[in-house]
Amino acid sequence: MNYKELGPWAQYIQYPEEAFAALSERVERAYAEDVVYPPREKLFAALELTPPEKTRVVILGQDPYHEPGQAHGLSFSVEPGVAIPKSLVNIYKELQSDLGITPPEHGCLQRWAEQGVLLLNSVLTVEAHRAGSHRDFGWQEFTDRVIAATNSLPQPIAFVLWGNFAMKKAGLIEGKYPRLVLTAPHPSPLSAYRGFFGSKPFSKINEFLIENNTIPIDWKL
């Protein structure tokens, strides 16, 4: 890994060079020795598809899906043709309840990313079939710097923190610039009924963006 892969984000992410080198070594070794997701070329897909100047929303996930063909570098998203994960099914249900948008037949959220929705996982890699296997690599320190970099941008940005893990990142978000922080239980089947359903995040985000003279997100996929 090198900073050039971060594209325009490189100038905003203040991550110590030694720490980045150590993280890079662990990640590259894992790709060389194990089956790791997402594919290496899509490791920084979220940052590539949503550059700093276009970022309007951040939806924070945990780590990538760990089964073949699923992860492609965007939180909650799967490649076209892959079965839609249950958490994403529930996100689609809330989208329909909130805005009346019929759920698509695929689980690819790339269109959101291209509109300025940073679909960021806190951990960016995982070994096949081993959920959470790379959580001690140093990714969380790196992505905390990404969140802080996002918060440093001057445009209005909505941060979506679903579940206790994501909610812990709220302390990285300050109110110097227009910010919206939405928290709710995780959309997984285990917790969605505890307050995720009915939370109306999509309409709240667009109301916030419009109030701050910013183009809303077209959530249709």
Describe this entry's structure for a reader.
By secondary structure, the protein is of the alpha/beta class. It has seven helices and six strands. It has helices spanning 17-33, 45-49, 86-99, 110-114, 139-151, 164-167, 201-211; strands spanning 36-37, 57-61, 117-121, 126-127, 157-162, 179-184. A four-stranded parallel β-sheet has the order 3-2-5-6, with helices on both faces. A two-stranded antiparallel sheet has the order 1-4. Helix 6 links the parallel strand 5 (157-162) and strand 6 (179-184). The longest helix has 17 residues, at 17-33. The protein starts with 16 loop residues before the first helix and ends in a 10-residue tail after the last helix. The model has no long low-confidence stretch (mean pLDDT 96).
Quaternary assembly = single chain
Order of helices and strands: HEHEHHEEHEHEH
Counted by DSSP, the helix tally is 7
Side-by-side strand order of the widest sheet: 3-2-5-6
Unreliably modeled segments: none
Average of pLDDT: 96
SS content category: alpha/beta
